[in-house]
Amino acid sequence: MFGREARGQRQVAKTSGRKHGFPLAPSLAPLAWPVGTISRRTVMNNAGLKAYCMNSLPQILHTISYMALPLLFAMVLHEYAHGWVANQCGDPTAKLQGRLTMNPLAHIDRFGTVILPLLCLIMPGGFFLGWAKPVPIDPRRMRQPRRDMALVAAAGPAMNLALAIGSALLFALLLSIDPTIGSYWSKSEDTPSPDTWHVMFLLPIAVMSVYSVLINVLLMLFNLLPIPPLDGGRILTSLLPGTAAMALMRMEPYGMFILVALIIFDPQIHVIHAITSTLTHSLSNSILSTAVGLGTGDAP
């Protein structure tokens, strides 16, 4: 049994440095991101934030301007969390290779992080795909490889959840500073912006904070799918008995094809839609409503 587990951990070491789901998240995980999740007529109940359909270049640029920073933070901190936890577990590989840093340039893949997402925004279609550079992990240097690999894999989604909660609290704080932000967002697209410096300054931050909640919740849920090489697949591999773990790891070379198939056949099976729409919006609304309730002293 120990020999099988050791071979399994070596295999994980070879495959752990693949592209992470973008949402950006880990390991060859193309973030299947429905543009409609944020950009179509989606209303955050308590925030009153209406996102508009991206049917023109100005609207695309407008959306990119608000999504860029939250997406960058989600990606960088997700990868940083993997490397930091690995380092705490005895594997300094990411640190030695300069990946244990907040510098976005260390985590950006030119095609997967920049070119492909822009193409997805410009071209018609429902999905936003991308990835970041993988964080190198060597389980052989960890004190308890099976347990530690599960912790390392869980660190990315946990960071996304923390960022979502922090962004919701920031939004609630901005609403407490200027409640007119919420009432302004509940109005139509043509409503003129109040000519006050604090609204002009706070409104973009508030919009980005709500986008940040949506982005981070989506990345967390997608990357928790129990399919290698996503984080959920790695967590499940570390928790299963040796034989079952080896069987699951053998799926990893086909993980991308499984994800693409799920996306293609989603109109029939609704797996991706359930994650990127139903679960994402439900959890995002819950996080936002709880944060706003705490800010106003009311229970959600």
- How many strands appear in the DSSP assignment? 6
> What's the assembly state of these chains?
single chain
Question: Which strand-content bin applies to the residues?
Answer: under 5%
Please tell me how large the radius of gyration is. Answer: 20 Å
- Which strand order do you get reading across the main beta sheet? 1-6
Low-confidence stretches are 1-55
Keywords:
globular, mainly alpha, 63% helix, 6 strands, two-stranded antiparallel ribbon, single chain, 300 residues, 13 helices, two-stranded antiparallel sheet
Q: What would your notes on this structure say?
A:
- By secondary structure, this protein is mainly alpha-helical.
- It has one domain.
- 63% of the residues lie in helices and 5% in strands.
- It has helices at 2-15, 36-39, 57-88, 93-96, 110-122, 145-177, 180-185, 197-223, 231-239, 242-249, 255-264, 266-269, 271-296, and strands spanning 20-21, 33-34, 42-44, 49-51, 127-128, 131-132.
- It has a two-stranded antiparallel sheet with strand order 1-6. A two-stranded antiparallel ribbon has the order 2-5.
- A hairpin with a 4-residue loop joins β3 (42-44) and β4.
- The radius of gyration is 20 Å and the shape is globular.
How is the secondary structure organized here?
Blueprint: H1 2-15, E1 20-21, E2 33-34, H2 36-39, E3 42-44, E4 49-51, H3 57-88, H4 93-96, H5 110-122, E5 127-128, E6 131-132, H6 145-177, H7 180-185, H8 197-223, H9 231-239, H10 242-249, H11 255-264, H12 266-269, H13 271-296
Antiparallel strand pairs: 1-6, 2-5, 3-4
Helix pairs in contact: 1-10, 3-6, 3-8, 6-8, 6-9, 6-13, 8-13, 9-10
